[in-house]
């Protein structure tokens, strides 16, 4: 019985499956913002970013995915750089939440798990049709609760927390050739045959208010552009991920922190 | 129809050279300072490192320092000090008989396995098995095999459509993939056996694990009133060889390896070192609604010496089973309660079962006794009401 | 026919999930779980059109991962609290008409340990409480599923040999405390018959 060697990260798989399964062919991209939300204008805002969940690999002809270390490493670095440069919403400062130890690590893991459940719920029951809750068709009321203030403490203070997840499986040459061959064969067979897609590029991002814990904004896209393996592509990806992100009106009276 | 063939065939041919060669890693992955070699191994390791970040923070990791230190000692004795340092062993709370090994040396051992393994030698066989997966890079070979099987399956399927004889070829290739996976398991079984016997452990212990698992499956089936699945052949799509096969080849090879120098089984050490988590493991098992397997596991733990905690656990099993077993439960609680090592919860169980068995006064008195012994019981309010005759 | 088989066999696209539906629950007295159990909810609840088992109905405010209110409308003798994956080989524990509050707590614990693979299930409280006008029970528990700690409160009683029960479960962080007052108000409004 023992020796079932690789058990993939179940939580990730669940999120990813939900992200993909919940997206009907006609609506790949959706964003929502908490109604009536506006960034405060009395001070510059600081956004804390959770370590982006980034996966990059290749998709073989038969559809199996192979993780690629270099692509993943580059993608994470590129996305982090692009997020900092993008200054989402006009944030004065973007900081990454450092790895934690002990109790702080447990708090971090707890909120990651809760955000996972909230994100999953928004994807499956709010943003996309099919399994939507009728009372949630409008509005955008989700929260991690005011306990999130603890997260800000562990990262030297912050006003908002940003979660970013991307998954990129680049169709290999073999996959692209199979796609072409399948199309030819299907045409030859009078239109009867499989449709082969090449590559898989999905992602989502969410913003949390670190005082109330409320989910302010979320955006999900099952067919994203921008090649995260290079800096320019990652910048385009981040722009897409941050689509419809709320923008802070000009900060009155308060100068940015020194 | 035939005319359409060439286009697809050309594509098939074109695809072959495109599968760019990857480096073949060499050297021991458990050597100090080893870094993965080639695209595939590096990718696997990076992914496994991400998963380990989450695993480290998991709520279900058993962190008892003494237990973890002991498990590591057994691992190091089995595979050698030079190699065991590369392995990170995580004891995961899950009442299942399993363990797994990732490409980077992350070994997950599930608590249900510790409850079933009978001594240190059996544990060493399992740790040696998992280490062999790591040392022989089975994850990498497995990933490549799976990828190749699905590639061939997809190409032939598309070609079959082009040839107007559509058929899904993927299962044909998966059969060979699973056959390969079973070969890996045999290799790990024998690798583990040689490692543990090399460390002085009794080699036949490895075969014993499978004999007992088969007995447990029989006991489970008896408890359920169904036929035992111990010899069920699950067909070509399974990743592991049948239990009976593993039991047999491990016995054959184990006997050959038996010498006066390989006689250590470490029964007492095993029991003593795991004692702190024993009650939790037993509790997790008996709450699974699997009467036959649970009773078999308890009897194994007792080996004829029924301690207070084991009698209590067995009584709890019977109490949960419904009316006819309430009298057996009562008898078992009574056997437990006269012993010095009876858990406090024995008074609760006996009280509850006496109320069911029509001995209301004694049952209420027993519950009152329990509440005196366990004033902070979570079900105090409910038990008090029952003790008051409500 | 071929096209269909091909498409499925190749599994090149993720299959669409079975479409489950949700309906708004009107804020008036409603009977639930096709039984004589009735409650008066506040506005904002959604009813899942799928029945997990014959005598269970599920509601949610935000989504079943974040808050779930399950109504058990008369679980009969020897029936389980959840769907059995394999009735013969992996049976779930069954309800018995002679069960007391402590037995119901154990029934829920065993069921959740198996169906949600939650080995760290802990019962936090078992106490007598009125349900639908008669003496019943109130239970509290906690467990981890998929690294998320969840809490539950169950209230109910046995009437005519059947188990009537309402269970609220939600993540321990925020959602349990946030949703419990609304769930408890519904439990308080319960009537049988």
TrEMBL record, chain B:
Family annotation (Gene3D superfamilies): Metalloproteases ('zincins'), catalytic domain, Tetratricopeptide repeat domain
Q: Which family does it belong to?
A: Belongs to the peptidase M48 family.
Q: Which GO terms describe its cellular component?
A: membrane
Kindly list the residue ranges recorded as spanning the membrane.
Answer: none
Q: Keyword Nuclease: yes or no?
A: no
For this protein, what does the record note about how its cofactor is bound? Binds 1 zinc ion per subunit.
| Annotated Pfam families | Peptidase_M48
Q: Which PANTHER family match?
A: METALLOENDOPEPTIDASE OMA1, METALLOENDOPEPTIDASE OMA1, MITOCHONDRIAL
Q: Where is the Peptidase M48 domain?
A: 88-250
Q: Which GO terms describe its biological process?
A: proteolysis involved in protein catabolic process
InterPro entries given for it?
Mito/Outer_Membr_Metalloprot, Peptidase_M48, TPR-like_helical_dom_sf
Source organism of this protein record: Sphingomonas endophytica
GO function terms (MF aspect): metal ion binding; metalloendopeptidase activity
- Name of protein: Peptidase M48 domain-containing protein
Q: Does the keyword Zinc apply?
A: yes
Q: Which cofactors, if any, are listed as required? A: Zn(2+)
Q: Where is the signal peptide?
A: 1-20
- Keywords assigned: Hydrolase, Metal-binding, Metalloprotease, Protease, Signal, Zinc
SUPFAM superfamilies in the cross-refs: TPR-like
UniProtKB/TrEMBL annotation, chain C:
Cleavable signal peptide:
1-20
Organism, scientific name: Sphingomonas endophytica
Please state what the protein is called: Uncharacterized protein
Q: Which UniProt keywords apply?
A: Signal
């Amino acid at each position: 019985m023992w020796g079932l060697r690789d058990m993939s990260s179940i939580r990730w798989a669940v999120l990813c499956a939900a992200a993909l399964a919940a997206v009907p062919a006609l609506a790949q991209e959706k964003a929502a913002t908490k109604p009536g939300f506006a960034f405060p204008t009395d001070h510059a805002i600081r956004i804390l970013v959770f370590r982006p969940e980034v996966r990059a690999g290749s998709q073989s002809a038969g559809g199996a995915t192979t993780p690629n270390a270099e692509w993943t490493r580059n993608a994470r670095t590129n996305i982090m750089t692009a997020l900092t440069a993008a200054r989402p919403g006009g944030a004065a400062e973007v900081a990454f939440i450092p790895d934690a130890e002990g109790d702080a690590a447990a708090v971090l893991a707890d909120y990651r798990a809760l955000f996972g459940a909230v994100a999953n719920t928004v994807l499956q029951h709010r943003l996309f049709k099919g399994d939507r809750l009728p009372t949630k068709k409008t509005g955008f009321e989700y929260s991690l609760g005011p306990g999130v203030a603890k997260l800000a403490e562990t990262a030297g203070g912050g006003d908002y927390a940003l979660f970013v997840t991307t998954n990129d499986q680049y169709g290999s040459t073999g996959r692209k050739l199979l796609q072409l061959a399948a199309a030819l064969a299907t045409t030859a067979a009078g239109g009867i045959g499989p449709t082969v897609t090449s590559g898989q590029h999905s992602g989502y991002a969410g913003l949390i208010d670190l005082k109330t814990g409320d989910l302010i904004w979320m955006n999900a896209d099952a067919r994203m552009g921008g090649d995260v393996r290079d800096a320019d592509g990652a910048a385009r990806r981040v722009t897409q991920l941050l689509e419809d992100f709320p923008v802070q009106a000009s900060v009155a009276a308060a100068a940015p922190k020194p | 129809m035939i005319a359409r063939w060439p286009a697809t065939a050309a594509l098939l041919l074109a695809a072959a050279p495109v599968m760019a060669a990857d480096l073949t890693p060499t050297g021991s992955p458990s050597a100090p300072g080893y870094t993965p070699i080639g695209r595939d191994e590096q990718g696997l390791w990076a992914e496994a490192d991400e998963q380990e970040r989450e695993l480290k923070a998991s709520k279900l990791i058993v962190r008892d320092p003494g237990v973890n230190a002991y498990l590591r000692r057994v691992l190091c004795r089995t595979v050698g000090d030079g190699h065991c340092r590369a392995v990170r062993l995580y004891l995961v709370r899950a009442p299942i008989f399993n363990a797994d090994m990732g490409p980077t040396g992350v070994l997950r051992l599930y608590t249900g396995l510790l409850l079933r393994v009978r001594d240190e030698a059996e544990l060493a066989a399992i740790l040696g098995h998992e280490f062999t997966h790591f040392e022989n890079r089975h994850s990498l070979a497995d990933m490549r095999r799976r990828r190749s099987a699905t590639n061939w399956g997809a190409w032939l399927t598309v070609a079959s459509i082009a040839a107007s004889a559509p058929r899904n070829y993927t299962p044909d290739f998966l059969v060979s993939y699973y056959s390969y996976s079973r070969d890996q398991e045999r290799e790990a079984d024998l690798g583990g056996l040689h490692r543990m016997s090399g460390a002085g452990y009794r080699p036949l212990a490895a075969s014993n694990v499978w004999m007992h698992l088969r007995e447990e499956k029989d006991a489970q089936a008896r408890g359920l009133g169904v036929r035992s699945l111990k010899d069920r052949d699950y067909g070509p799509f399974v990743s592991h060889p049948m239990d009976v096969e593993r039991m047999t080849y491990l016995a054959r090879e184990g006997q050959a390896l038996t010498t006066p120098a390989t006689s250590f089984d470490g029964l007492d050490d095993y029991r003593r070192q795991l004692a702190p988590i024993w009650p939790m493991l037993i509790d997790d098992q008996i709450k699974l609604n699997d009467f036959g397997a649970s009773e078999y596991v308890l009897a194994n733990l007792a080996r004829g010496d029924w301690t207070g905690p084991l009698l209590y656990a067995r009584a709890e099993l019977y109490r949960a089973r419904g009316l006819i077993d309430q009298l057996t439960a009562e008898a078992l609680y009574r056997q437990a309660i006269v012993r010095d090592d009876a858990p406090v919860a024995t008074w609760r169980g006996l009280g509850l079962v006496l109320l069911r068995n029509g001995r209301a006064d004694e049952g209420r008195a027993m519950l009152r006794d329990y509440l005196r012994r366990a004033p902070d019981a979570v079900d105090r309010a409910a038990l008090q009401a029952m003790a008051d005759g409500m | 026919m071929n096209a269909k088989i091909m498409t499925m066999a190749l599994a090149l696209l993720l299959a669409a999930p079975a479409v489950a539906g949700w309906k708004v629950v009107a804020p008036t007295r409603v009977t639930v779980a096709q039984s004589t159990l009735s409650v008066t909810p506040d506005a904002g609840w959604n009813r899942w059109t799928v029945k997990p088992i014959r005598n269970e109905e599920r509601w949610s405010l935000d989504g079943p991962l974040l808050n779930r209110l399950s109504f058990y409308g008369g679980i009969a003798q020897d029936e389980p609290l959840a769907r059995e994956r394999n009735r013969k080989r992996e049976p779930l524990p069954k309800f018995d008409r002679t069960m007391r509050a402590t037995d119901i707590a154990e029934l829920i614990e065993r069921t959740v340990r198996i169906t949600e693979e939650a080995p760290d299930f802990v019962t936090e409280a078992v106490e007598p409480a009125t349900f639908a006008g008669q003496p019943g029970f109130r239970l509290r528990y906690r467990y981890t599923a998929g690294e998320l700690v969840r809490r539950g409160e169950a209230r109910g009683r046995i009437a005519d040999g059947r188990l009537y029960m309402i269970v609220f479960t939600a993540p321990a962080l925020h959602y349990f405390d946030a949703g419990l007052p609304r769930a408890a108000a519904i439990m308080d409004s319960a009537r049988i018959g």
